[in-house]
Structure formats: C-alpha cells, structure tokens
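Section 3.1 - Work completed
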Amino acid sequence: MKKNLLDRLIDWLGIPQNSVEYQWTRSKIYQKKLQWVKNFWIVGGLVMLAVAQPAFILVGSFFLTFLSFGFLERQDPS
C-alpha cells in the first residue's frame, strides 16, 4: 500500500500512530467533521471575497480558524 505525503511525514517525524489522538483523525466521524469544516471555509471564503474589506477578511479568518479547531476537537464520552 502506497502512503500519501502526510503519512510519510508522520513516519519521518516519528509520531506514534497508536495514540488515541492519532486514531481519532482516522475515524469516520472526524472525516465527516473535516468535510463540514472544508465547506465552512469555502462558503466563508466566498463571503470574504464578496465583502472585500481587509478588516472583515482578517476577523472572518480568525473566527473560522477558531470554529475549525473547536469543531474538530475530540470529545470524550464522559
């Protein structure tokens, strides 16, 4: 099986692949959330292009980054 660039980089850096955090990034739920984040960024980017104000673009980028990190974070089932 041929590895993609990201998997080769992970191997080269020596990141342990048996950790809970790494396994979370390979789950179907994470991949689904990643698709949602990608769609949010596409829509947000189009809105930023339509408004075309540097301050709006900066604040919008920071806000979308914050939402991306929060949405993709693994939630413990406790």
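Second construct:
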Amino acid sequence: MTTQAKGIGDIVQGIRDSSYELDTESRLARVGLKDEQDIASVLEKYAWLYNQATVQRAREASEREADPAEKNRLRRAYYFLLDGYVSRKTAEQEDRVVSFEMGATVEVDGETIPFHNVRALLAREPDFERRDRLRDATLEVAEQTNPDRAEIVGRRLDTLTSEFGYSSYTRYNGEKKGVDYNLLLGRLEDFLSRTQETYVRLMSRWAEEKTGRALGTLGSNHFAYISRVPEYDAYFTKGRLADVYARTLRGMGLDIRRQTNIHLDTEDRPKKNPRACCFAPDPPGEVHLIIKPLGGLDDYAAFFHEAGHAQHYGNVDPSLPYLDRAIGTSYALTEIYSFLLQFLTVNRSWLRDVVGVPEDIADEVVYYTKLSEFFLVRRYVAKLRYELAFYEHPADHERNRALYAAALQDATRFIYPPTNYLNDMDSGYYSADYLRAWITEAMLRHHLESAYGEAWYNAPEAGAFLRELWAAGESHENEEIARMIGHEPFDASCLADQFLSLAQAPT
C-alpha cells in the first residue's frame, strides 16, 4: 500500500486490513498467546490511513454523498478513522497499561497472585478480611497505572479539540453516536429514583445475609462474593457449559457444529485474562468466542453474554458491504444481543428445561441473578453520571477521585475506592452504550416472550427473527431496534419493571 490513500476504496480496504490486525493483536495478548500487547506498531504500519488527511477525506466524502445508506457507511468510516487517529496518539501508553497489568502480580498473605486472577478470587474467597487485603493489593497496581491513564485522557481530548475542533468529549461522542447524553441520563435518573426503595431494601437484606455486615459499610469488592451464589454450582458445572450452549442454540435453529466461522477458545493459559470476551476481526468469516471457564452461574452468564456477540457477528450477511458488516459507531447495538443471551439465566423455563435446575431452585436463581443485575445497572448509571461530570474538568484529579467514589456509593450503597477513578472508565462512554443496550434488551426480551412465550429460545421462529436482526450487522443502531418492536428509545420502564417485580418474588 502506498503512503497515501488513493480514494475511498483504498480507505475502506485499509480499515478492513488494519481492523483485522488490531483485533488479532488485542486477542493474542488477551488470551495469553503474547507476553505484551503492541497496538502502537500496527497503527504506525497504517499511518497513511490514520492521519488527518485521510480522516478529512472520509468526512468530505460522507458530506458529499447523496445516497442515504452509503452516506451512513461513510459517516461511520469517518468516525472509525478519527478514533484510530486519536488511538495513534495514545497507543504507546495504552499498550504500556495493558502489558503492565498482564504481567503484574500482587502479594497477599505471602502468596504471589497474578493481578488478572484477583477478580475471580474475590468471588470465591470466604474470608472477609482477606477479600479486603486482595482489594488493597489491586489498588496498588491501579495507582501505578493512573499516570498513564491520565495522559491517555489528556492526549485524547487535546487531539479532538485542537486538531478537529470538537468543543468537548461529550459533544464529540454525542454527535458520533447520535445520543443526547443529558436526555439519556435524565431518563436513567428517573429509573434510579423509581427503583431505589426496592433496591436498598432487597440488597440490604442480601448483603447482611452473606456478610453479616450492613449495606453502606461494605466495600464494592465484596459484591463479587455476595453475588457468587456457590450453592447453585452443581447445576452450572464447567464440563456442561458447551452442551448447554449447543442445546440452547439448537432450539433457535442454529447448529454450532456448522458454525465453523466461530472459534471457541476455552484453554486455560497462565496469562489468559479470565474475563470472557469476543473478537470479530472479520465478521462473519472469523469470530472468536473466548472464556477461561471456572464453573458456576456467573461463569455461564459471562459466557452467554459473549456468545451473544459471537452470534451477532457470526450471523452477519456476508454479502453486505464491509462497513455494514463490521463498523459501527458504538457497542450499544451488539450489547443488546449479548444481554439477551446472558439473561437466559433469569428465564425459568431455560433454567429448568435446558440446564436441568429444579423448579423451586430455578426461582431462587432467577431472583438472585436479577438482583445482581439490578446492582450492575444502578452502578452503570452512576458511572455515566460520574463520567459526564469528569469530562467537564478532566484534569482536576482530586475532584474526580471524590466524585467517582460519591457517585457510585450513592447509587449502589457500596463503598468505592477513589483510586479506581480512571481504571473504571472505558473510552467513548461505553457505560452509556451498556445502558442503552440494557434498556433495549428489556424491550426485545418482552417482545420475544409476548410473541413466543417464556420458552422463546426453543422457538425456531424466534431464532429466525433474531438471525434477521443479526444479518444486518452494524447497519442499524440500538434505538432503531427499539422502534422496530414498537418502543420509544430511552424508555426504561421495561427495565425498571423487571427489577421492581423482585419485591413480590419469594426468597
């Protein structure tokens, strides 16, 4: 490839080639097949693509284009290139953070523990004080990454404002994703108010039952243990996960044996990040579904979440233009499908008929899984509230540390360490993408259950409906799915109702 793009065709091919290499580099580091991540080198290899001239060319092409569908594709290409250009400015620091965390260890009670393994240990550690010691050790690692994370934020903002004229990070992402963040947060603040009494009452009872301590005195590190529910492990064994997955998809008319494009990685490597994930470097041709299985309900939920991504990307219509297959402006669309499969864990019929959980136990699983998700949704509303405030004064670190801890404690009633004020943020307001997906998934699940019953996962017609949505790749946006099934975007009533119903559930 020459050092300068010759036209839009070259640009699109460059996006495809570089995306494949970037995704592959991230995946190999994530699964422990590389000792260090080196995104910076990949981006420099495509410097001809991720530069001001090419970004501007894509923007001008989008503005000139008369065909609405092609205009939308080029618009997405522009933002993708701009994000890539910004990433070139921050890649060295981001690689350093990822590589440092990959190799980091913590010392707790004379034991050396890989940093990435602490999350899983917290969920399985019965000793209250040891859970605090594990948390304290991870905070030392987090504090070491904060200078790099602060530099990443600063460079990102400076590039967008000084080189591209965006007045704020919020304005940039709002324009890119078509989201009014103040409107979204306002709807979600209503959600918090409407559900607060139910949440505090139910979570207080659960927290005290599991720890003997009152909600409001507990660090956030204890939630992983509270929500672990090991008493149900016998039904969610590591060895049965693949069979449960295959049976679930078979009910929807999908045969995983024929999905040779979706590669399942369950290997247990020492440096493999235990958090399940999905990479789609070239959908639908190559998709990777990755987990380091441990067994347990939380493991099943994490796996099915990532399986939702894999089915979305793996079922994209291969005849679509590449930009429709692979390039979106946010993750809010694909997260709908991740949550949809994950929340089979709150479907009594699925728990009973596919997993084999007795009916009375299934009721308990549904209750505790929903209550865990209740916590997470409220936590993410608080994250969005904090992040919007953060970007008003991103360089005021003491203010932002305090804001972070206060916002998350207010919504969840768990105590959050200020040290995590940077490493608990993902770029591009991913917190809002998650929240948009939670809202729309609740609508979609209600739609499927209304049309096909609680056992919608066992209706081939439901599978056909989902495959039609998946086939469109990234050509739709989250809120379009809401409109397709007759709902108003950002309407959190379906989401709130499913949690408020917990007040009447037996425990």
